[in-house]
Amino acid sequence: MSLLKFYTITIFIAVFCKGFPQAEHVQTFTKPNKYGGQSQRSSCVSPNKYNRKPIVMIPGVLGSQLEGKLNKPDVVSILCSKQSDWYSLWLNLEQLVPWEVDCWVDNIKMLYNNETRQVRNNYGVQTRVPQFGSTYAFEYLDKDKYGIGSLYFAPLVDYMTCNLGYTKLKDLFGAPFDWRLSPLQHKKFFKNLTTLIETTYKNNNNRKVVVIGHSMGNMFMYYHLKRKSQAWKDKYIDSFVSISSPYFGSMKSLKALLSGKAMIGFLPKLKLRSAVRTAPAFSFVLPRPDLWPKDKQLLVVTLQRNFTVHQYKELFKRIGCEGCWDLWKDNGYATGSFTPPNVPVHCVYSSMVNTAETLIYDEDLFPDDSPSIVDGSGDGTVNVFSSSACLKWKTMQKQPVYNVSLPGNKHVQILANSTLHHYLNSVVL
Ligand SMILES: *[C@@H]1O[C@H](CO)[C@@H](O)[C@H](O)[C@H]1NC(C)=O
Ligand SMILES: *[C@@H]1O[C@H](CO)[C@@H](O)[C@H](O)[C@H]1NC(C)=O
Ligand SMILES: *[C@@H]1O[C@H](CO)[C@@H](O)[C@H](O)[C@H]1NC(C)=O
Ligand SMILES: *[C@@H]1O[C@H](CO)[C@@H](O)[C@H](O)[C@H]1NC(C)=O
Ligand SMILES: *[C@@H]1O[C@H](CO)[C@@H](O)[C@H](O)[C@H]1NC(C)=O
């Protein structure tokens, strides 16, 4: 990390926050380094004695690094660059400070064409995800690894390499993707994923592959499996480990569209919201009207009127986001009916952590202010009835479905949980 970067962040934090706020992605189980981030792993013993199944991992929303390259016709402020070589667009706290966030929003936001129903990057912005095939882009979200919000899959990847003897790019692979998009805009990614799974199988003596997804990554895998032939699945897939997947949707996503998602406590929520509202992925994981529990249909309460899961059109109109309605119409049902994937499934989910079920707003401040929240059970991000929905496949497919309940774990922190690690040990060896 450059010294300049360190100073920028430090000064920013000193000025705008009282101490380090708790970020949603932050985990506190490893020793923080001197920048308040995560220390490098200590060197690990890599016993090479096991007969392991190869693994492909898939991360969730906000969960892969993104790079951008600019050659823009115009910019929103004189502080913004028109031109750049490839640089880190996500996650890069430097660009999220108040005096730069408008530039960042303009670079990461998507444009929707309501005639062709296609989304694209803003004019003059190119994006890419680094190192398809590797877990690199989602072990840490910030290239420099330091700092809040950066740590993601590293604890799980480390467990696999350090404790179980896996080798990256030999029997351990990753499928990062542009998490702004829904599966419907990801044809190329699914081609890549198919090839990755097939070559992983071939290069490991024709051993079937264990796919491990987290959060929205599972929805991508599920979408993919539904489109593959049974013969393909029988040949290549050992099992699908679904960790904390929002099968029926997530209230967290609705809250992000309505009021913004700070992601990291001190960031300017409403500015980030304007980018979130253009990303199809957030519509893709909204609560599904056809699947959401009958006794939890009331999602938003304001003094003047309430909105149920069947009233997105009215809700998005009320918040002045017609684009949200378009994106939801196109992407909300992307995974289709809740039929089983017909591969062995390890349905891993947490519960007992407060998770929003209804958002209650003060009329005047709706939707810009943070709502009061009626909580239910879940992992803080995904409601338990959504993440455990994979259990329903038990009676719907002939392949086994394993019930892996890990109560008390938060949405991201679960990836570092040793009970999960030991369970995975039994799956892959
Ligand atoms: C596209 O958006 C414009 C401007 O909001 C609107 O006037 C038009 O009716 C929309 N067209 C479709 C097909 O929705
Ligand atoms: C597909 O794979 C290629 C080669 O690894 C990579 O360069 C490209 O970024 C990937 N594209 C997507 C959308 O995954
Ligand atoms: C909205 O729902 C709440 C909670 O069920 C209820 O008390 C209130 O009367 C409803 N308000 C309107 C305007 O329907
Ligand atoms: C899954 O396991 C949990 C914890 O053991 C149990 O409470 C729950 O009833 C099980 N669910 C199903 C559908 O088997
Ligand atoms: C890991 O998960 C288990 C099962 O939910 C839980 O009992 C345990 O406290 C968790 N461990 C840590 C360190 O959070």
TrEMBL record:
Pfam families: LCAT (PF02450)
GO BP, one annotated term: lipid metabolic process
SUPFAM superfamilies (alphabetical): alpha/beta-Hydrolases
Entry keywords, A to Z: Signal
UniProt key word Membrane: no
A GO MF label: O-acyltransferase activity
PANTHER family assigned to the protein according to its UniProt record, in alphabetical order: LECITHIN-CHOLESTEROL ACYLTRANSFERASE-RELATED (PTHR11440)
InterPro entries attached to this UniProt entry: AB_hydrolase_fold (IPR029058), LACT/PDAT_acylTrfase (IPR003386)
Protein name (record): Uncharacterized protein
Signal peptide stretch: 1-19
Lineage per the UniProt record: Eukaryota, Metazoa, Chordata, Tunicata, Ascidiacea
